[in-house]
Each structure stands twice: as C-alpha cells, then as structure tokens.
Design goal:
Ybab, Chain: A, about 15% strand
C-alpha cells in the first residue's frame, strides 16, 4: 500500500509541473529574440512560441537585380531567429524541470 501513496504524490507533482509549464509557455510567447543577416541589413524577431513577429529590411538590401540574395538573407535570419527562440525555450524549460530529460518538453 505504501507504493500507492508515492504514486499519489508523484501524480500531484506531475500536475503541478504541468501547470507551471503551461504558465511558462504563456510567458515565453511574450518573450522575443532577434536575429540578423547581412550585417544587420535583415532583422527578424521571433517569440518563444516559435512565431515570427517582425521582419525588417534596410533599403540598401533591396536590389531588384538580386532578389535571390535578399531571399537568402531573409531565410538565414528567420532560421537563426527560430533557433534562438528554441534555445530560449529549452533553457527556460530546463530551469523548470531541473534538468530532467522528459521527451517532448524541451
């Protein structure tokens, strides 16, 4: 019967962790990271919800004769912003879970 007592305590802890994680996910959705490419000519802002919030371009980077370069810079900045966002989320989740390796949470 002692094991069932532990099971109830573990379930309670799991529920508390789940509530904390949900709150953290809401908070992370409001935090942003910025990435740039082309020496800052292209900037991208992403939030902790893995969504792009803004893209800004300097006029000098917009060259109608070289659209491919602009596309490459935007792609590089977006990928960097999403990677930084994922790092931020992993870091914050790691603080919450205390380094536990729980699949799907980091």
């Amino acid at each position: 019967m002692k094991n069932f007592g532990n099971m109830g305590g573990m379930m309670k802890q799991a529920q508390q962790l789940q509530k904390k994680m949900m709150k953290m996910q809401e908070e992370l959705a409001t935090k942003t990271v910025e990435a740039s490419a082309g020496g800052g000519m292209v900037k991208v802002i992403a939030n902790g919800g893995q969504k792009i919030e803004a893209i800004s371009l300097e006029k000098e980077v917009v060259d109608p004769e070289d659209i491919e370069m602009l596309q490459d810079l935007i792609l590089a900045a977006v990928n960097d912003a999403l990677a930084k966002s994922q790092e931020m989320v992993s870091s914050e989740m790691g603080k919450l879970t205390g380094g536990l390796n729980i699949p799907g949470l980091t």
